[in-house]
Specification:
Helix content: 40-55%
CATH topology of the largest domain: Peroxidase, domain 1
Pfam families: peroxidase
Radius of gyration: 20 Å
Keywords: Calcium, Disulfide bond, Glycoprotein, Heme, Hydrogen peroxide, Iron, Metal-binding, Oxidoreductase, Peroxidase, Secreted, Signal
Distance between the termini: 24 Å
Protein name: Peroxidase
Number of helices: 14
Oligomer: single chain
Number of domains: 2
Structural class: mainly alpha
Strand order of the largest sheet: 1-2
Mean pLDDT: 91
Order of helices and strands: HEHHHHEHHHEHHEHHHHEE
GO biological process, one term: hydrogen peroxide catabolic process
GO molecular function: heme binding; lactoperoxidase activity; metal ion binding
Length: about 325
């Protein structure tokens, strides 16, 4: 049998297996038993290189799973025939640390070629980002397939703006069978990481078109943000999402209670009657927040489109078959 025919058969077998699998823990226990330890090792390396990177990787799960399920579509680069999700309104100049996923994929390909999907890498890496920064650890379900395409329009139509309020967020999460409690807990992902000045300029200088700042902002905190993000300044400058941006804890919720939420979509969780009680509970009980967050991440990871998929060899491009030869486009 020729090498190219062997590649073709291997690819078709992989596509069939991954398409038919149901998500379950320890999916790679026989085919790649070291998969989860390899992902955590690479995430530790990334964190040591740049502490912020693990928060950025965790955010990929949210931006991936809400758009046609958890299928690594967010990782795909644009092609002449496809406008992907990286340049969508919520992602452009915002999502980052794709190279961390590339490093993880490279390490997994060396250990277990053509076995672990990029979609599963995102799920494992997101869990590890939380665990490595002091947050909860949980068992992840694996066996996802990687999408064959991506859609900028789908991302634009679904992902919320930093201006979103609690009512909008509740409705969005409800579409995916995620409860109000799930939504508030998962918003706690902002316990680590940073956001851009671009996302808060309207809060500081023109909330709701008033020409004035958001009156909910605590005065000392508002002064700090004004200095960080002056009118006419560089809107790509970043600020901490909470007071402990490198530690996953419940400080995020304590900050919301005190009027020190960075994003409007965060602070509105405390000003809204529908979500305030959960914010208060999580601010007072870190253990309850950790449990709710882990449960929410598992539910988020269950979102699937049901579309055909594959195991990509490179997370940024889909595999292609042309003239009976397996190629990577």
């Amino acid at each position: 049998m020729s090498l190219r025919n062997l590649h073709l058969i291997l690819y078709l077998l992989l596509l069939t297996v991954v398409t038919g699998e149901i998500l379950r823990p320890r999916f790679y226990s026989e085919t790649c038993p070291e998969a989860e330890s390899i992902v955590r090792r690479e995430m530790k390396k990334a964190m040591f290189r740049e502490a912020r990177s693990v928060a950025s990787v965790m955010r990929l799960q949210f931006h991936d799973c809400f758009v046609n399920g958890c299928d690594a579509s967010v990782l795909l680069d644009d092609t002449p025939n496809m406008l992907g999700e990286k340049l969508s309104l919520s992602n452009i100049n915002s999502l980052r640390s794709f190279e961390v996923v590339d490093d993880i994929k490279e390490a997994l390909e060396k250990a277990c070629p053509a076995t672990v999907s990029c979609a599963d890498i995102v799920i494992m890496a997101s869990r590890d980002a939380v665990a490595l920064t002091g947050g909860p650890d949980w068992e992840v379900k694996l066996g996802r397939k990687d999408s064959l395409t991506a859609s900028q329009k789908d991302s634009d139509d679904i992902m919320p703006s930093p201006r979103a309020n609690a009512t909008f967020l509740i409705d969005l999460f409800k579409r995916f069978d995620l409860s109000v409690k799930d939504m508030v807990a998962l918003s706690g992902s902002h316990s680590i990481g940073q956001g851009r000045c671009f996302s808060i300029m309207f809060r500081l200088y023109n909330q709701s078109g008033s020409g004035k700042p958001d009156p909910v902002l605590e005065p000392v905190y508002k002064k700090k943000l004004n200095k960080l993000c002056p009118l006419g300044g560089d809107e790509n400058v970043t600020g901490d999402l909470d007071a402990t941006p490198h530690v996953f804890d419940n400080q995020y919720f304590k900050d919301l209670v005190s009027g020190r939420g960075f994003l409007n979509s965060d602070q509105t969780l405390y000003t809204s009657r529908e979500t305030r009680e959960y914010v208060k509970r999580f601010s007072e009980d870190q253990g309850e927040f950790f449990r709710a967050f882990a449960e929410g991440m598992v539910k988020l990871g269950d979102l699937q489109s049901g579309r055909p998929g594959e195991v990509r060899f490179n997370c940024r491009v889909v595999n292609r078959i042309h003239n009976d030869v397996l190629l990577v486009s």
